[in-house]
Predict the structure.
Amino acid sequence: MRRASLTQFLIERQRAGRINADLRLLIETIARACKAISTRVNKGALGGGHGSASSENVQGEIQKNLDVMSNEILLEANEWGGNLAALVSEEMEDVKPTPTHYPRGEYLLLFDPLDGSSNIDVNISVGTIFSVLRCPPGVEPDEQVFLQPGRSQVAAGFAVYGPTTQLVITVGDGAYGFTLDRETFTFVLTQEGIKIPQDTAEFAINASNMRRWEPPVKRYIDECLAGKDGPRGKEFNMRWVASMVADVYRVLSRGGIFMYPRDSKNKDGRLRLMYEANPMAFIVEQAGGSATDGKTRILDIRPKKLHQRIAVVLGSKNEVDRVTSYHANSQ
Ligand code: AHG
Ligand code: MN
Ligand code: MN
């Protein structure tokens, strides 16, 4: 049986009235940029992508060469497309409206060009995360226009550059996975209607922060670690890749809970609401999972600023509900 390409899948979605031609072309453009980034990642030290650039990003983090390259690839691909009113990325200080001499579209694009960049030089999976919002007609696309809650997203997705390059997307009717066929250089549909199991015995958290966690998080992890003899009465396994794309891809594939909670060092959490938490929460919910900041559904949070950080608890529904209830009980 011949499998559908991303192009065929998107045409199908357009015929079904789920997306318009502009959104279809926008997703195609992002996917093309992800293929180019995948090639760069694949070249490793041979492509000049290893090592740090001499610059810091807006968050005060040292940029890796591949952070800068990936950001440029996505910028270049999208500037001309005619589908965007403006874009913004984790690596840029300000919103970038489409220049007035180019055609302007109705969408706003937000992205984390290279997620997990501490893993580049050690040959562990990294990725790209994106989120698409709508720009109200006739409105100048400044920072304010971007500050929409995650439930307003019209599309979201992420690529993982791992042993295979995978692309996961949603346009609001389920989550779908594609594998990059390196021979034809096309994304091919390989995971249809992804479903995250409701229960799991696998958690992902950076345990080096344990002494800084809030009591509900400490309680949840302690109970998992107690295994069969503890209150949960079963053994748990732990994984932490330190690339959100890889950890979330695993959760989508076989279930699990992924947490980057707020702690006494990262008071607002570590991950970024607009470039990481919102798009991942949209995808996870579309796959039947849940995503909260420990208390509130992520997609309902009204952003206050572009580069806002947030606590993230996502994945298998019953485990996320448990963590959320521990927070509620501790108030
Ligand atoms: P980025 O490379 O875009 O800054 O994001 C890295 C994020 C995320 O991918 C991962 O889950 C987390 O940071 C890892 O944090 P620790 O290094 O604290 O484990
Ligand atoms: Mn990231
Ligand atoms: Mn990044």
